[in-house]
Amino acid sequence: MTSQRILDFFKTRQPEGPCLVVDLDVVAGNFKAFRHALPDSHIYYAVKANPAPEVLRLLAGLGSNFDCASVAEIEMALDAGATAARISFGNTIKKERDVARAHALGVNLFAVDSHEEVEKIARAAPGARVFCRVLTNGEGAEWPLSRKFGCVPQMAVDVLVYAHQLGLESFGVSFHVGSQMTKVDAWDAALADAKRVFVSLAKQGIELKMVNMGGGFPTKYLKDVPTAQAYGQAIFASLSRHFGNRIPMTIIEPGRGMVGNAGVIKSEVVLISKKSDNDEHRWVFLDIGKFGGLAETMDEAIRYPIRTERDADDMGLCVLAGPTCDSADVMYEKNMYPLPLSLTIGDEVLIEGTGAYTTTYSAVAFNGFEPLKSYCI
Amino acid sequence: MTSQRILDFFKTRQPEGPCLVVDLDVVAGNFKAFRHALPDSHIYYAVKANPAPEVLRLLAGLGSNFDCASVAEIEMALDAGATAARISFGNTIKKERDVARAHALGVNLFAVDSHEEVEKIARAAPGARVFCRVLTNGEGAEWPLSRKFGCVPQMAVDVLVYAHQLGLESFGVSFHVGSQMTKVDAWDAALADAKRVFVSLAKQGIELKMVNMGGGFPTKYLKDVPTAQAYGQAIFASLSRHFGNRIPMTIIEPGRGMVGNAGVIKSEVVLISKKSDNDEHRWVFLDIGKFGGLAETMDEAIRYPIRTERDADDMGLCVLAGPTCDSADVMYEKNMYPLPLSLTIGDEVLIEGTGAYTTTYSAVAFNGFEPLKSYCI
């Protein structure tokens, strides 16, 4: 999975300390795969997955739109060359003054999932377009999807009617099937819900125009995942099934699926030891852990592929942990990780599939360790 | 729990966005309480709990020593006025080149828990003092203690003999009873283990001189915790029981107990909403969450006191969540949090007991949100 360009970078640059390298060619390839798989959908890249300026500039140049979680992310997308018309303020939890700032920057598309948020937008961004997020169940997703975002479909109807009453443009419905979603048909039930909201609104004279089908597109970690093409076919079939020949404008918001497999973290083995002479398994400590960028190993949710120069040797299970003095800084323990028995202190390991949700998750300076460095090539 | 000085700071300075304010008078009071409770122990402040330069300078001035997790923390302690003789490199997981850097800075006291780490220190810091960390069970601790640090006592004996053979000074034993330890007698079993290691080493002609009793001293969150005095009495009783009238030099490493109750985070209510009309409970969203400094709410481990201006009103349980687009950014959901039913969007809330393990845990820029700001007064 590590591209030759990334291998060459590590070999020639030999950067000190843990770092992420992102291959922009892979990102460009992913963008094209999404466009090809869902040619009628508008791609809104989820900036939070990896907001590196080089990634944003590349995607802006390729014609991507941007799903932003904060005013800072909106400003980064604008700096990268996106126009405000290509930006969605996709966070359902916004300070009213941040709505006003976004609106002043020209942003006109906002996510909501409550009457209270609609009121803020009506006051701070009068006349703007809003879409209401509907709760889905997240079954089949590898990163936990809580009930944090969205409301039940019946309430979404009320929220969108209320937005209309307050002079906003009730534009559509959004949902999120859960991150690292490995079931291609996961979008079907949510699209059925979306259609029901469309119908209910139409009965009240409000014509919705858009379905934001969110992200959730997986990246390859250890297990193979379906292709963008397979997702595209399943989603198009569901759209046709539920909307017939009146398919609305659609949006997708890939983040992990856009950049995950484009990045590789280089780390170093700091210590290999046992806790007693009888211990069957080794503890392997790396110079990066849960607080240095691998936050998604929380509850051992995301299991990254790890590559070493000794992978042809015999393998043995080990506990994998980070370098801090925090006892919670352990990546894989319940489900131990196979690594070469010949692995040695000082060895370099490559943690693949780390292009998404690593750099910005990294702690500022926990235990005095620097945040994860990042290079785009 | 919020001091008048902190309340006055918020009132006069009105800082924008979430921020932590630390009252240095409270830190000084905590230091004096530890010194009074354990007058014969050397206090090594766990820098990772809060490495604010003002905190380090204050403690250096009061005569504290420093437990450091990295070279960066060692440099911060030196910058704050500590001499190298007052610094312990307490992380059992160190790169050999970091051991060499620390040694070059004059540090002469290192933690180990394995033969492999002893070898690094023998090469990079020849002749230095080492202490070996012994595994304890952590029962009664509120922050999870894994098996990450330490080795079984019998192996500690071997590790310290090995250190002696490699020309290091086998100086003592350390252990950690688990963070936010609420049982005052939790140190007893570990001190019994420490004594056994002393005896085994003495039989081989090696006289250990020090027991590092670690941290674990709690700060007051919602429940009352025993006083430093109560811990001091229990620990002194255990030391006497196990070591008789030959009590060795002892070290304690308070972090949370030194700064936890000195800090208060000011946050703002961004949204209060429900997911359906039938929802019994509200969701309350703050402008700080798990990725903005409240990482210790992971698995709902640490439960902070929250204070609002409406606390005299009727209370109702709510789910408490952070402002990011990450579905894992929920602080309290399984065990919901009581907040005033009159709480309103835009209200200020004070999150108390947040002086430890907040600022440096904060993500660099997750979702574009700035790291937690901090003021020491």
TrEMBL record, chains A, B:
Residues 27-259 form the Orn/DAP/Arg decarboxylase 2 N-terminal domain. It catalyses: L-ornithine + H(+) = putrescine + CO2. Its cofactor is pyridoxal 5'-phosphate. CDD domains: PLPDE_III_ODC. Keywords: Lyase, Pyridoxal phosphate. It comes from Rhizobium aquaticum. This is ornithine decarboxylase. The keyword tRNA processing does not apply. The lineage of its organism: Bacteria, Pseudomonadati, Pseudomonadota, Alphaproteobacteria, Hyphomicrobiales. One of its GO terms (molecular function) is ornithine decarboxylase activity. The keyword Ribonucleoprotein does not apply. It holds the Pfam family Orn_Arg_deC_N. Transmembrane segments: none annotated. Gene3D superfamilies: Alanine racemase, Lyase, Ornithine Decarboxylase, Chain A, domain 1. Its EC number is 4.1.1.17. Belongs to the Orn/Lys/Arg decarboxylase class-II family. Pathway: Amine and polyamine biosynthesis; putrescine biosynthesis via L-ornithine pathway; putrescine from L-ornithine: step 1/1. InterPro entries: Ala_racemase/Decarboxylase_C, De-COase2_CS, De-COase2_N, De-COase2_pyr-phos_BS, Orn/DAP/Arg_de-COase, Orn_de-COase, PLP-binding_barrel.
